[in-house]
Write a structure and sequence with these properties.
- By secondary structure, this protein is of the alpha+beta class.
- The chain has one domain: Jelly Rolls (Sandwich).
- The protein is built from 9 helices and 16 strands.
- The protein is globular and about 65 Å long.
- About 45% of the residues are buried.
- Keywords: Iron, Metal-binding, Oxidoreductase.
């Protein structure tokens, strides 16, 4: 996911005369003679954003099927593994999750078809308003950032009510089935996480009012970039919500921060990449950390990724679980805030955690 204030790019016609003033990254790449990127796409690396390397430690892998194997010892072991992964990495690969590989490939193909639609059909959904149920765009609001992301996107609200563009044909049905299946996986993971925190399995479901929980389906298109070392798909950020599930089209680009260093993620085939998000950090009173991650681009291949972000209901006030707070030994580390208010903070370009995290005494 990315900060939610995105608009369509204003490209300099002086720099690239063949590109219309209002365009997408895809149109920019497909214009004649593109050998360098416009200056407003050039990303100055921040001091904490060093180059990434391959991790020395193996990224945790969780076998989802063992959660429902009927063997209580296996389930207990997997819950311990999830607890460790959420504490130490804030990230894990999920295998044997039951979502058909054919469905995962179909939804990636459908997103590719959407991005290939004529510009005017995609432009129907161009908006700055994060509360619109369907949004198409590229880049980021210049008031918030000084540069544009090398990315086009479509985002839809998938729960509690499902929305989706009607084109291309069959796209809505595939996205709906994918969101339904991935949300079912998320709900099972949150049961396990409830238990890993010492609660009964439905604790998070009830506390976060997940029957009306917010799910966003976000498809990202990262076209080949002639100067990938100067551009950024999505800069370092954390996600709002509880858990984000991500898949990609076999082209890498996701990088995660672990122990202060950046690492490439090379996913196993047909796996979900799962990361803990801000509101799981808040609810666990800091036991689990919302992981910093970013998306880089390359010069050869188009990358498509799909993130499904799963959060509380908009009216839920999220704060540390009372059972995880002790005023003396474990004071509350975050102030309470409604999920909707938290998302509105991001409209202003402000990292939400900085606004709810209490200073350490």
């Amino acid at each position: 996911m990315a900060p939610p204030t995105e608009v369509l790019v204003q490209t300099s016609p002086e720099t690239h005369p063949h590109v219309p003033k209002r365009t997408t990254v895809k149109a920019l790449v497909e214009s004649d003679g593109l050998t360098s990127i416009p200056s407003n796409y050039s990303y100055a690396t921040h001091p904490n954003e060093s180059d990434a390397s391959d991790p020395n430690d193996t990224i945790p892998t969780i076998d989802f099927s063992l959660l429902n194997s009927g063997d209580p010892h296996q389930r207990s072991k997997v819950i311990q593994d999830i607890d460790k992964a959420c504490q130490e990495w804030g990230f894990f690969m999920l295998v044997n999750h039951g979502v058909p590989e054919t469905l995962m490939k179909a939804v990636l193909a459908g997103c590719n078809e959407f991005f290939n639609l004529p510009m005017e059909e995609k432009m129907e959904f161009a908006t700055k308003d994060i509360w619109k149920p369907i949004r198409f765009g590229t880049g980021v609001d210049i008031k918030v950032e000084k540069f544009f992301f090398w990315r086009d996107f479509v985002k839809v609200i998938a729960h509690p009510e499902f929305h989706c563009p009607s084109k291309p044909q069959g796209f809505s049905e595939v996205v709906q089935e994918y969101c339904k299946r991935s949300r079912k996986v998320t709900m099972e993971l949150l049961k396990a996480i409830s238990e890993s925190l010492g609660f009964e399995e439905n604790y998070i479901d009830k506390a976060m009012n997940l029957k009306s929980g917010w799910q966003i389906f976000a498809a990202n298109l990262y076209p080949p970039c002639p100067q990938p070392e100067l551009a950024m798909g999505i800069p370092a950020h954390t996600d709002h919500g509880l858990l984000t599930l991500l898949i990609e089209n076999g082209i890498g680009g996701l990088q995660i921060q672990h122990n202060g260093k950046w690492f490439h993620v090379n996913p196993l085939p047909n796996s979900f990449l799962v990361n803990t998000a801000d509101h799981l950090e808040i609810l666990s009173n800091g036991r689990y950390k919302s992981i910093m991650h970013r998306a880089v681009v390359n010069s050869k291949s188009t990358r498509i990724s799909i993130a499904t972000a799963n959060g509380p209901s908009l009216d839920t006030t999220v704060c540390p679980a009372l059972e995880l707070v002790d005023n003396e030994s474990r004071p509350a580390a975050y102030i309470p805030m409604k999920y909707k208010d938290y998302m509105n903070l991001q409209l202003e370009g402000k990292p939400g955690l900085e606004h709810v995290r209490l200073p350490v005494a």
